[in-house]
Amino acid sequence: MKTERTQNESALVCAAREGDKEALNTLLLRHWRWLKALVYGVLADAQDLDDVMQNVCLRVVTRIHTLREPECFRAWLAILARREAIKHYRSKTRRPDPTADDFVAMSASGAQCGPLERLEQRELCRKVLDAVETLPEIYREVFMLAHSGALTYAQMAEVLDVPVTTMQIRLVRARRMVQDRLIDRNKQKVHER
């Protein structure tokens, strides 16, 4: 049984396939947060994130007419974005460090705090991003999707094309690996003092 949102999304996809720019814009805005998290999960490179997202948008605009099943839009979009991110990742010879500003900008709480809190949040995000960057891709993707705050577990599993239980296991492992890396870094700093 289709939900109202799914039916609405399918109608938007049909309108976008027919050239309705407003419908296409609505679809992209609706999926932007998790899509950006997915691309970052592949790249682990915030510096190129906007360029890849622009390329993803261009691909969506030029390829939306090829989507045959409107109810599969989310999965289609995820595959398209992942391919674009992988293509970009492979074309890079060197991976620059990600910036915490981009991660803070992706989070909804970044805009709600004062300058001091934002600075502390950036520092914490920098540490977390350093840890996330070291994760294998399957764990980095699920971690970034989960922390985009835009998708349910079922939707994340759909985007990653895995069963929900597999996605949950990967997320638990990713969080544990990030936590272990953060704890190890803190222990090193204590020993250095």
General description of the model:
The chain has one domain. About 3% of the residues have low confidence. Helix 2 packs across helix 4, helix 2 packs across helix 7 and helix 4 packs across helix 8. It is built from nine helices and no strands. By secondary structure, it is mainly alpha-helical. The chain starts with a helix and ends with a helix.
Number of helices: 9
- Series of H and E elements: HHHHHHHHH
Round the Cα radius of gyration to an integer and report it: 18 Å
Secondary-structure content class: mainly alpha
Overall number of domains: 1
Q: Profile the largest sheet.
A: none
- Shape estimate: elongated
**Percent of residues in β-strands:** under 5%
State the distance separating the first and last CA atoms: 60 Å
Number of strands: 0
Q: Mean pLDDT, rounded to whole units?
A: 80
State the gist of this model.
This protein has 193 residues and is an all-alpha fold. The chain is built from nine helices and no strands. The chain has helices at 4-17, 21-43, 49-63, 73-91, 100-106, 115-133, 137-146, 153-160, 164-192.
Based on the model shown, name its key terms.
single chain; 193 residues; mainly alpha; 75% helix; elongated
Layout: helices, strands, pairs:
Blueprint: H1 4-17, H2 21-43, H3 49-63, H4 73-91, H5 100-106, H6 115-133, H7 137-146, H8 153-160, H9 164-192
